[in-house]
Amino acid sequence: MIGAGFAGIATAYYLCTEHKRNSVLLIDSRQPMSFTSAQSGDNYRNWFPHPTMVSFIDYSLDLMERIAEKFPDVMNMTRRGYALATRRTNIDDLIAELQVGYGNATPDVIRIHNRGSLVSYQPQDSPDWRTAPDGVDVLSDQNLIRQTFPSFNSEIANVLHIRRAGDIDGQGMGQYMLQHIRHCGGERLVAHVRGIDQRERFSLEVENADGVERINADVVVNAAGPFAKDIAAMIGVDLPLENVFQQKLAFDDERGVISRTQPFSLDLDEQVLDWTDEDRELLAGDPELTWLVEPIPGGAHCRPDGGKNRTWVKLGWAYNRESSDPQEDLANETRLNPNFPELILRATSRLTPALKSYSESLPRRRTHYGGYYPMTRENWPLIGPLGVAGAYIVGALSGYGCMAACGAGAICANWIVGGDLPDYAGQLSLARNDHKELMDEILNSPSKGIL
User: What are the residue ranges of helices labelled H in 276-385?
Assistant: First the structure.
């Protein structure tokens, strides 16, 4: 297993626990979950613009919930949902997207709440994933929105409340799986993979503090995250994969402007950042910064972090669409924009005006960080055979690696051992590129589900 992030660990976990394979070796030059996985937002949602992706994530969440049921302290799973807010009054296109994603869902799955609605609405007052509703509640009554989400801008006209959504402790989940991998006989090796030879078996050249050595394997799983394309090239495979660097900001909400019961809250609307006239003129005069005074796609989001007994919040905005080569040291990543904290505060304050109180001075306890979204052009994962006998991939998990890890790992493990696969497994593999109709459908979709 090349890569000890969420995806690699989950694949090793299911190979060891479900399929009793005890000769599993996790190889990574870093400690487990210390690169891309360490930058996770630790969120989950079954809201995607295609039924295949919804089914895949639902499957992954089922597996997560099995762990949470037995060991609730492992993941600290909560389920307050995702609140997707817009100032638009006509949201027919958003309702249509929901219906497509949830497979032409019946009215009891997508529930509309307006002044004439008789459908009851249960707000997010309980974080327990066992009792929280499923489906989606669409709030189209501004009085109900003000009552349910009092911190939102009064201009918000509609809120799509995705109910099977919330947050987890991704690191806790990974550590739980690592313990079981070790218990089943699986091992770890801290080393860098330098090359892979193919003869009757795979021969991996790895380098660590002790020098260079060779490791033979019957099966190789590429779980290298942002470096998956490099690993695939070692066996002659050109992966349709790119890396997009995205940033986040977390800080101590010492003024308590974000309620600890607020769900993951996202502003769907495109926006122009609120600059002063002087700042706008200066930015417009710099070719590299002109984009900051132009309309920027929606998606700025905020949520409380760490549970009800902590005071931190997380802010994110995956506005970047330019691919780049991954760097080995995220701390020295040149795309970590020093102006991002100001940008994200301006963006999220549009939905939650109380955040403006931090615009002049952020708390001293804060962290600005970033990580890569390894992704295909359609933003679907790659899980399954790599086109070389004995080689598999589990990757391209974009910004949903934490929530998808269990499902991706279980499906990849079943590919390896010849186990039962869900009927959509082929669509999540490289084989989907041979199906023009499917590719045209998902590439022409108005949304790729990027958050």
Answer: 277-284, 340-349
Three-state SS letters, 1-17: CECCCHHHHHHHHHHHH
Identify the three-state secondary structure at position 443.
Answer: helix
Residue 290 DSSP label: G
Six token digits for residue 153: 């801008």
pLDDT per position as a tens digit, 122-171: 665 557 889 888 999 999 999 999 999 999 999 999 999 999 999 999 99
> From the CB of residue 96, how many other CB atoms can be counted at a distance below 10 Å?
11
Burial of 360 (0-12, 13-18, 19+ CB in 10 A): exposed
* Integer Cα distance of 224 and 231 in angstroms: 7
Comparing CA positions, the residue from 302, 413, 432, 348 lying closest to residue 9 is 413
The predicted structure's pLDDT at residue 329? 84
* Residue 392 β-bridge partners: 221, 385
Q: What is the pLDDT of residues 159-213, one digit of tens each?
A: 999 999 999 999 999 999 999 999 999 999 999 999 999 988 999 999 999 999 9
Residue 330 amino acid letter: L
Between CA 42 and CA 168 the distance in angstroms is: 5
160 contacts 121 by C-beta, under 8 angstroms = no
| CB distance 245 to 324 below 8 Å | yes
CA dist 57 and 51 (Å) reads 10
Q: Where in the chain is the domain with CATH 3.50.50.60?
A: 6-42+169-241+377-443
pTM of the model: 0.95
Q: Using CA atoms, how far apart are residues 196 and 202, in angstroms rounded to an integer?
A: 7
How many helices (H) and strands (E) would you count in the chain? Answer: 11, 19
For domain 6-42+169-241+377-443, say whether CATH 3.50.50.60 is its number: yes
Q: Which region among 1-5, 303-307, 410-414 has the lowest average model confidence (pLDDT)? A: 303-307
Q: What is the distance between the alpha carbons of residues 440 and 428, in angstroms, rounded to a whole number?
A: 15
What's residue 106's pLDDT? Answer: 77
Helix 170-183 vs helix 6-17: angle between axes, to the nearest 10 degrees? Answer: 40
Helix (H, G, I), strand (E, B) or coil at 343: helix
Q: Are 91 and 158 in contact (CB under 8 A)?
A: yes
Is residue 251 within 8 Å of 363, Cβ to Cβ? yes
Which amino acid is located at 449 in the chain? G
54-82 tens-digit pLDDT:
999 999 999 999 999 999 899 999 999 99
Percentage of residues in the chain having pLDDT higher than 70: 97
| DSSP letter, residue 33 | T
